[in-house]
Amino acid sequence: MNILLEAVGLNKKFNGNTTVLNNVCLKIRRGGIAALIGESGGGKTTLCRVFTGLEKASSGKVLFKGKELGTLRGRSFDDCASLQYIFQDPYAALEEESTVSSVLQEPVNMCSRRGRDYMPPQEALTWAGLAGAAFLGRKIKTLSGGQRQRVSLARSLITRPDLIIADECTAMLDAQAAAEIGRIFKKLNQKLGLSFLIVTHDAQFLYQVVDYIYVLHEGAIVEAGPKDRVLNIPSAGYTREYMESMWEIEGGGLIEQDHLCQPQ
Amino acid sequence: MFVSASDLHVLNTVLPEETFNSFKEYYAPEKPVAEQLAIYIKNLVRFDLGSSFYYKMPVAEIIAGRIGWTLLLSFVSISISALLGIPMGLNAARRGGRGGKYLLSCFMALQSLPVFVLAIVFQLLFCFKFHIFPSGGAYTLGMNANIIDLSVDVVKHSVLPVIILVLVELPPIFSLTYNVCARTKEEPYVEMARYFNLSDRLIKFKYVLKNSLPEILSKMNIQFLYAISGILFVEVVFSYPGIGTLLKVAASSRDYPLLQGILLITGFYGVVINLIFELIIKKVNPRF
Amino acid sequence: MSKKIANKAAWAIVITMLSVGAFYPFISPYNAADFSFRPLMDPSTAHLLGTDEMGHDLLSMLLAGFRITLTIALAAALISTFIGTVLAVACAYYKNWVDTVIVKLTELFIIVPEIVVLLFFAVLAKPGVYNTILAIALFSWSKVARIIRAKSITAIEKEKIQYTLLLKGSIWHVLIKMWRELYPAVATMFIFQCSKAAVYESTLAFFGIGDPLAITWGRMIRTALNYEGIFTGGAYLWYLLPPIACVCIFVVALSVLAYDFERE
């Protein structure tokens, strides 16, 4: 089994006593799409930020390709470039006044300065489903939320990463745009062998995109395993509760979506 | 006194040779820096700030003789500004409307002017044109009078400097109070009190002022620290015999030890003001 | 409505003053350094503001003062705004001890007023226009740093800037990326610093420090006050008041502009 990212006994406390992460251990294998689910405030975003280095864990370590990752300051550019992060809010992650091409130019400049092979912006945009040279000249503020999120994705692809961490990247999009993002993730996973760690509340994502699921409850991993097992025969009490609540809220819609999305 | 060899080199070009040599002997710039620093700190602990070139006297003694006048000006002007500024800001905020904003922008303009320019214009008008106040000094020299006449004389000399200082110190206190009170006025508990039809007076003092005061006080110490530079300049224009006039003499005669002493004493003043305000804030509101 | 008029008037004043400073040799009636005239003349058609006790034409001196005073103000403001902004961004970028040290430094300037420190160092330096500019610039950045630091700390938490951090962007990359966020505050501070530098320059000249040869408004005020007969006749009307008026108008016009910028 080829492990890409590994968390070993991660703890995180805020202000000395509020425990956000409680001895989190998980392994993310290369070439899969993993999902992280759990209640809001359960530490999902904190865990992602620890992985990216934006936040420092109180104890424990993060291994990436078998090598220990420190805080952002201690990481090499290559580590940063191969572990990309997509922000939740597509309206805050991109500069309103910039054009698409200048947004995509930033990682290109960073890569060429440090001698890392990069993907041409045009190609990255095509992968993200935004074909057409005319797109490069568009201002960010003229784009819809779904288009912005795909520009963010294209920006992440430029550094040719191994793993993309996406923190609720579809939470602010409508169902159609979210489904489109899911299809793109799947395609990138199959064609480029890119791995993903997705934080999501979206049932459709869990059923159609994801391979593995990790359940985070009160800062600890309570269940982990292949999608079908976790979704159909949840073993932990919390996972069962979570599934039930998800079905209660989204149950009706889920079947509808299945019908709509099947013929691709 | 702590001086590096390169500083001395600069002084060498501007000072007469005799003073330069005595200076060099006293401060021993050829010794290593650490040793100089040790000597400097040792002297400082004994309140030995070196001796002035210009007055040929110990710096500490000169400053001790002058500081009383500066403290007099600063405490009188600060008290008047606070006693005027806080009620003015409170009233303007309570009334709302354009009056307060208009006053605010006038004060903004006043605040940006150099203090000494303001002092010169006032001196020109009230001393030389209308002859209402004496044009300089803290008292009439050579006056042989009883204590009452002397006090009247001192007050007469200090009226104009104090007025100018109040003009400089009032605007920041006013705008601080105005802004804080205008914000407090919108708080739910004040709205509630208004809803209960409590008297305006009660709302003003019990609700708005009482809750704004800690914040006003915690920010006001900065205004007072800024005020010290104003005091120094006003003194220069009115040749008031305080630290400011001393600073002018020290600067124009390049009296390095005296300058350093003044720098230290203003720093000390700042620390003391900070401490006083911390005590007041603790008294008014133990939460802070 | 009246606010708009005040703003327009302030712009008009500042632009007029700057162009007088730029083109004064063409409008100046005589050479400012020429002292061959009869001393202490009252205003006449030949000498609109009369002459001083040395025999300089006062109007020419005043016009020459535009150039040097405004140059000092602009240059010192430019440098101090730059220093303050870079230190402020460094606070937000490096955090920890860098932040602590810079904050302590700015607090030091609150306890000991800038102008006193400035006087102290200006006395040590060789008198000259460049040293005056440097002295003002080096000791007047504390307010810029305090205000821009607060803005930078909020700005660096924005997702679009976090992306640059994730790519290991240097402090310059972050500064450029943040520029759009910081620009209004930096512009306000620059105008504010211009006015402050003009005040400090005149204060230094008033204390007799600074270039004894450079003709500035501050130096004119000082020589006027040193002239014993200034208040006995009408000499103050054309000798003392014009430079005072120039300083005041410049400073007030700038503070009107800064105030308007701040509100936008």
UniProtKB/TrEMBL annotation, chain A:
Residues annotated as domain ABC transporter: 5-243
BP GO annotations: transmembrane transport
Gene3D superfamilies reported in the protein's UniProt record: P-loop containing nucleotide triphosphate hydrolases
One function term, GO molecular function aspect: ATP binding
Alphabetical keyword list: ATP-binding, Nucleotide-binding, Transport
InterPro entries in the record: AAA+_ATPase (IPR003593), ABC_transp_ATP-bind (IPR050319), ABC_transporter-like_ATP-bd (IPR003439), ABC_transporter-like_CS (IPR017871), P-loop_NTPase (IPR027417)
Protein's name according to its UniProt entry: Oligopeptide transport ATP-binding protein OppF
Source organism of this protein record: Pelotomaculum propionicicum
TrEMBL record, chain B:
InterPro entries: MetI-like, MetI-like_sf
Alphabetical list of Gene3D superfamilies matching this protein: MetI-like
Listed CDD domains: TM_PBP2
Gene Ontology cellular-component annotations: plasma membrane
Pfam families according to UniProt: BPD_transp_1
Membrane topology term: Multi-pass membrane protein
Residues covered by the ABC transmembrane type-1 domain: 67-281
UniProt keyword annotations, A-Z: Membrane, Transmembrane, Transmembrane helix, Transport
Residue intervals passing through the bilayer: 67-90, 102-126, 159-181, 224-243, 258-281
Domain of life the protein comes from: Bacteria
One Gene Ontology term from the biological process aspect of the record: transmembrane transport
SUPFAM superfamilies (UniProt xref): MetI-like
Subcellular location as annotated: Cell membrane; Membrane
Keyword Transmembrane helix: yes
Family membership: Belongs to the binding-protein-dependent transport system permease family.
Protein's recorded name: Dipeptide transport system permease protein DppB
From TrEMBL, chain C:
Localization per record: Cell membrane
Keywords: Cell membrane, Membrane, Transmembrane, Transmembrane helix, Transport
Any matching Pfam family: BPD_transp_1
Topology in membrane: Multi-pass membrane protein
Record GO biological process: transmembrane transport
GO cellular component, one term: plasma membrane
Main location: membrane
Transmembrane segments: 9-27, 68-94, 101-123, 129-149, 236-259
Location of the ABC transmembrane type-1 domain: 66-258
UniProt cross-references to InterPro entries, sorted A to Z: BP-dependent_transpt_permease, MetI-like, MetI-like_sf
Stated family: Belongs to the binding-protein-dependent transport system permease family.
UniProt name for this protein: Glutathione transport system permease protein GsiD
